[in-house]
Design brief:
Number of helices: 11
Structural class: alpha+beta
Strand content: 35-45%
Number of domains: 5
Shape: globular
Radius of gyration: 29 Å
């Protein structure tokens, strides 16, 4: 839960997770008090694992309970439109992160009253590399007197290993005995500001709990309870199968820089880990195909060294011909028949098809026809410049899966980690057969890898185990194998968890149906969606087809929680003005109400329908858009617990920074309203010195000398007057005591610029959007936390978020939104320019 001591007091913050037979139910509960003399808006903001489904949310205010209600998403969308048409706020409050998703809502609490929040989410833990992982995030962002994390794990076969990692691990106490394990985390107020995952503002970190179970029988573990069963199959005492593996690597122009470097680093390590009895190949593609060798070769020491040399010479350029590259991989595997081997294709790409066959449906058809489900295609999507749903369809239709590789410093480790998961095949063509059951989950699997686990669940007919039996058939390295006569075990539960196997079945069924829905078409797709919806509503899961309406006391707007898909951006429904019959340019009073009035709280982005009155664009109807933050500027504020922020409409050309003594100035042109950041920036040094920035290059013009630099290459250019340094998509310009930077960002396939002032001269007059003294002196007024003083001016402020694009990581930070004139102390028109 994110907050600060200036807002409210958190009396207690508890996270309790109970894991029974790999199924985790976690409850986050918090009691928060408004210590102000006036009603205060209190924010509840927590992070949960991406794999989980929210199943319950409750607020208790002054003894009255407000429960969240899971509904069909279409019903909620209608509620959105109605709320917006009435000028109310109605925001989607869950967004995608790397391993976590955000749940946010807020409620106004009367003076000196308390509110209790309770959020429940559920997940089936997956086994990877021999371990299950339970991830818990703790972010109250203030020291809490009663802070606890408690985890209880129960596994009937016994717990084999237990390990706690993450920034909060040093304060956790872990114990295990036979079938149970306990992890307790109860830091003191002092410890909450001094641990690795702590700050003066409290805890902010993760706890990763890894464990594995005893497996007395390699043929698996079958649990039954209340008419449902779950079969956990993870044999390990069988020999590994040699593999034919082909790595298909994208070296198109967009891979230039860190991406290709990290890919090379990962491949060099992976090549070292290929077993001697494996055969392998390398296909490098852009607009054309390059082969290391025309056929698969054994992983001898000489071949590995030769392949490494080939990998070191990757040269990013050109387009992206996914179709030809994958079909070539299929051709090479088919030309290397080894009956004892398990074949695998691994495709890594950072872009959509732009060369060769570019129609995605045609590519899917071609690849599916070529592979014919004879071996799996795994796809690693590098970064966010891809249509991930296309990669998911392409892999799932061919027996594999797609995974996103995040473009962080550990991208190479992510690539290596994925390869480790599929590097040791133990079984192929696995068929799980059950009698006496119904409503069963997926029972056919192309591969089983060491360290993983296959889970099947279903309902036992008439709750009778007399006719219930299990048979597993598969192919191992040596011959066909069959496991049968498994002895089902009656599962024992902790109090209140008697139906956990039923929820295992429901959770697994919904997950697999959502995967099927991705590739299904026509009536089959409709039938699958109907099944998902019925189960989601019955078990109160927030899935991509359902939403949870967070109800509030009368007079407050409802919020809606949605489960996002992996490749979708957070959607925000906007209406900057009260849209009751507005059909022309709003009045100045309406514009002011956008900044100050209750119905006009600032939204996360400014965007309007296009009309040509006076050359301006104004909203005339509600819009769905995909950007979360647009043209939002952050300003440090002295005397406040967070920064100030304000919005500037897109498309304007602005004076950013001007220092008259040196003649140094910087202007920038914002992207159109549908974009982000700046599309062009120009620095003026003297009458004959200019530096031009756009999203493709940097051009330095000094007298008759013209120099063009790339954003990718690290370089430095110096004259008697200035120093220009390019490194890692950031350009730094230094002129005496002035130091500015221009950063190149890329989000959701859109590139944009962002300026930052690193150092401004003291004792001189500097003007421009970025020319104000930092930090601005502000203070709270006594009557409301939402009213602040900037200099001598009192303004209303609203708590919101912004991305800090002035640094590479571009983190989301909390800020207080104010009108731009309050910060600039002038009208916005005073900072616009006709030409850069």
């Amino acid at each position: 839960m994110a907050t600060t001591t200036a807002d409210w007091d958190i009396y207690s913050f508890h996270i309790n997770s109970t894991v029974t037979s790999r199924y985790a139910t976690s409850v986050i509960s918090s009691r928060v008090a408004n210590r102000h003399n006036n009603p205060t808006e209190i924010l509840f903001h927590v992070k949960i694992p991406k794999n989980a489904f929210i199943s319950k949310f409750r607020m208790t205010i002054d003894g009255k309970i407000y429960d969240g209600e899971v509904r069909k998403k279409e019903e909620v969308q209608q509620q959105y439109s109605q709320a917006v048409s009435q000028g109310q706020s109605a925001g989607l409050i869950i967004s995608v992160g790397r391993t976590l998703e955000h749940f946010k809502t807020s409620v106004t609490v009367a003076a000196h009253k308390k509110v209790d929040f309770e959020l429940t989410y559920e997940e089936l833990l997956s086994r990877r590399l021999g371990k299950y992982e339970l991830l818990i995030n703790a972010q109250p962002m203030q020291p809490v007197k009663d802070f606890r994390i408690g985890v209880n794990i129960y596994e009937t076969t016994g717990i084999r290993s237990l390990n706690v990692k993450g920034s909060l691990k040093d304060l956790a106490h872990a114990n295990r005995a036979d079938q149970k394990a306990w992890i307790n985390f109860h830091p003191t107020l002092e410890q909450q500001t001094q641990c690795d995952g702590c700050r003066e503002s409290g805890l902010n970190g993760d706890m990763h709990i890894f464990y594995d179970v005893e497996r007395p029988e390699s043929l698996g573990e079958v649990m039954t309870s209340n008419g449902f069963f779950a079969h956990y199959f993870a044999p390990s005492d069988i020999p590994r199968i040699p593999k034919n593996v082909i790595f298909i690597i994208d070296e198109s122009g967009s891979m230039m820089g860190k991406k290709i470097q990290q890919t090379q680093s990962a491949l060099l390590k992976i090549l070292d880990d290929i077993n001697e009895d494996d055969y392998f190949g390398l296909i490098i593609f852009s607009s054309r195909i390059r082969l290391w060798k025309p056929e698969l070769l054994p992983a001898t020491e000489d071949n590995i060294e030769a392949a490494k040399s080939f990998v070191k010479n990757l040269d990013p350029n050109g387009g992206t011909d996914i179709n030809s590259a994958v079909l070539k991989g299929v051709e090479m595997i088919n030309a290397c028949p080894r009956e004892e081997a398990a074949s695998i294709l691994i495709l890594l790409t950072d872009g959509d098809p732009t060369a060769g066959v570019t129609n995605r449906g045609q590519i899917q058809h071609n690849v599916k026809a070529a592979i014919g489900l004879k071996f799996p295609l795994y796809i690693l999507g590098f970064g966010f410049d891809i249509t991930f749903e296309f990669l998911q369809k392409l892999s799932q239709e061919n027996g594999g899966m797609a995974r996103r590789i995040y473009t962080d410093s550990d991208a190479a480790l992510q690539l290596q980690g994925f390869y480790e998961e599929v590097s040791t095949p133990l079984l192929t063509n696995i068929r799980m057969n059950y009698t006496g059951v119904t409503s069963i989950t997926k029972t056919s699997f192309s591969r089983y890898y060491d360290g993983s686990e296959i889970v099947v669940a279903g309902e036992i007919i008439r709750n009778s185990s007399k006719d219930f039996s299990v048979t597993v058939m598969a192919i191992s390295k040596l011959n066909n194998v069959m496991y049968q006569d498994l002895n089902p075990k009656e599962e024992k539960h902790a109090s209140g968890l008697e139906n956990s196997l039923q929820r295992v079945w429901a959770f697994l069924t919904v997950k697999q149906l959502l995967e099927k829905e991705l590739t299904a078409k026509g009536k089959e797709k409709e039938a699958v969606r109907k099944q998902v919806l019925e189960l989601s509503l019955k078990y109160k899961f927030v899935t991509p087809l359902t939403s949870m309406v967070v109800t509030k006391p009368q007079g407050e707007d409802a919020h809606v929680a949605n489960k996002p898909k992996e490749d979708t951006e957070e959607k925000v429904l906007l209406n900057p003005f009260n849209n009751r019959g507005l059909s022309r340019r709003p009045t100045s009073d309406q514009i002011q109400s956008r900044h100050h009035g209750r119905l006009g709280r600032p939204s996360s982005i400014d965007i309007f329908d296009m009309s040509e009155e006076d050359g301006h664009s104004w909203m005339t109807s509600p819009l769905w858009i995909k950007q979360k933050v647009n043209m939002r500027f952050l300003v440090a504020a002295q005397g406040l617990f967070r920064s100030l922020c304000y919005d500037i409409p897109g498309g304007l050309s602005l004076r950013l920074f001007h220092e008259p003594t040196s003649g140094f100035s910087m202007n920038g042109q914002l992207m159109p309203p549908t974009g982000k950041g700046f599309q062009k920036i120009k620095v003026h040094l003297r009458s004959d010195e200019r530096i031009y920035f756009d999203t493709n290059q940097i051009q330095i013009n000094i007298g008759q000398s013209n120099i063009t630099l790339s954003w990718i290459n690290n370089t430095k250019h110096e004259t008697d007057n200035i120093t220009v340094t390019v490194r890692d998509k950031e350009v730094e310009v230094i002129l005496k005591s002035i130091r500015i930077a221009v950063l190149l960002h890329q989000r959701y396939r859109k590139r944009f610029l962002w300026p930052a002032v690193r150092n401004r001269p003291s004792g001189t007059t500097v003007s421009g959007i970025l020319g104000h003294a930092v930090p601005i002196v502000c203070e709270y007024t006594q009557d409301s936390k939402y009213k602040i003083k900037i200099g001598e001016q009192e303004v209303d402020a609203y708590s919101t978020e912004a991305y800090d694009y002035g640094i590479h990581a571009a983190p989301a930070v909390y800020c207080l939104y104010v009108p731009p004139e309050a910060v600039l102390q002038k009208n916005l028109s005073d900072f616009t320019v006709l030409h850069l």
